[in-house]
Design goal:
Blueprint: H1 3-10, H2 14-21, H3 29-42, H4 48-58, E1 60-66, H5 71-86, E2 90-96, H6 102-113, E3 117-121, H7 125-131, E4 139-142, E5 154-159, H8 161-174, E6 180-184, H9 191-204, E7 216-218, H10 223-236, E8 242-245, H11 248-260, E9 270-275, E10 288-291, H12 294-311, E11 317-320, E12 323-325
Parallel strand pairs: 1-2, 1-3, 3-4, 4-5, 5-11, 6-7, 6-8, 8-9, 9-10
Antiparallel strand pairs: 10-12
Helix pairs in contact: 1-2, 1-3, 2-3, 5-12, 8-9, 10-11
Length: 333
């Protein structure tokens, strides 16, 4: 016997029978008595496992994290998970490689898990342009914003990466540096690296010359990669007096590489990071960094997603401010 059989015999709709089985208050006492009598007569045992799985799936929010070792995402992710739990939903986190196609994976998960919504923590704008129209549930792209994305279910929360990259350049120029190296992701497939470098280049142009691209060293967003990148950059341009690193993890790796090369930070080489991780404040010297508002990114992303899920709110774009935190790793010439 199935719920449909009970509905047919009782004369009530399947949805009413389902609510009665779950003891919902919006089902009348008479209906509950009649349905329970039929259940008792036939010895019907509800499939609890199936029902629980259905409930769990209907309350799940998927979080796709781009880059398994990105410490900047850690605090944001923890805050999001807390907000999801407080709203009585379930969070399911998937860690993706930096080179993975998060939109393709999201589309597959949407079919399999049928989530209420998605949080994409980091993402490639080109991939969203290519195939996000295959995802039809409310979604938020956190830490990345682009005016080139206009989907009715996709909101974005992040910073102005170009302006922040320009601010980093302006800060180093104000300290008297002109031979400035840059370490960041591959601009061809890292949207934020591309924007930060564009902003850097635009401000550097005030020196009267374009920034020499040979002073740009590609790196993954990790300490190990930052370490290797600084070694390559200094081997190519030993005249560098400062380096702008597009993440604090890159910067910390770069500072260790500078030490191993016999360079003192900041006397011989100034290093500026990006993200504002607390880790940088416990390094020697304390890391100067462009701080992103992690808590605000997490909170705004969740507010927007829950408003889309629960109230049918329209998609939106939110741009937050960064703050340059002066540390001990940058020195004036």
């Amino acid at each position: 016997m199935t719920i449909k059989d009970i509905a047919r015999e009782s004369g009530y709709a399947v949805s009413t029978v389902s609510r009665a089985l779950n003891d919902h208050p919006d089902v009348s006492a008479d209906a509950k008595r009649k349905i329970k009598a039929i259940i008792a007569h036939h010895g019907f045992v509800p499939n609890t496992n199936a029902r629980q799985l259905k409930v769990q799936q209907s309350r799940v929010i998927l979080i796709l994290v781009k880059g398994a070792f990105n410490l900047f995402f850690t605090a944001i992710l923890e805050r999001m998970q807390t907000a999801i739990a407080c709203a009585n939903y379930s969070a399911e986190v998937h860690y993706l490689d930096e080179e993975a196609d998060e939109v393709l994976i999201g589309a597959q998960l949407a079919r399999e898990r049928k989530p209420l919504g998605f949080i994409f923590l980091g993402g490639n704008v080109a991939l969203f342009q290519r195939r996000f129209d295959t995802i039809h549930v409310p979604s938020v792209l956190a830490t990345t914003v682009s005016a080139d994305l206009a989907f009715p279910t996709l909101s974005m929360v992040g910073i102005d990466d170009a302006a922040s990259g320009g601010g980093a350049c302006q800060y180093l120029l104000s300290k008297g540096h002109r031979h400035i190296g840059v370490i960041g992701g591959n601009p061809e497939n890292s949207y934020i690296s591309k924007l930060r470098y564009q902003g850097f280049q635009e401000v550097f142009a005030i020196t009267g010359a374009p920034h020499d691209d040979s002073y740009y060293q590609k790196s993954s967003y990790s300490m190990e990669s930052g370490y290797r990148a600084l070694q390559k950059l200094i081997a190519r341009h030993p005249n560098c007096t400062a380096v702008f690193c597009m993440s604090d993890l890159i910067a910390i790796g770069a500072m260790r590489a500078a030490h191993d090369l016999g360079l003192n930070v900041p006397k011989d080489l100034s290093i500026l990071g990006f993200d504002g991780l607390s880790l940088g404040q416990f390094y020697t010297p304390k890391l100067a960094s462009v701080r992103q508002p992690q808590a605000e990114i997490a909170d705004r992303s969740m507010e927007i997603l829950l408003a889309q899920i629960e109230k049918g709110a329209p998609a939106s774009l939110t741009v937050l401010d960064t703050v340059l935190v002066e540390g001990e790793s940058v020195l004036s010439l």
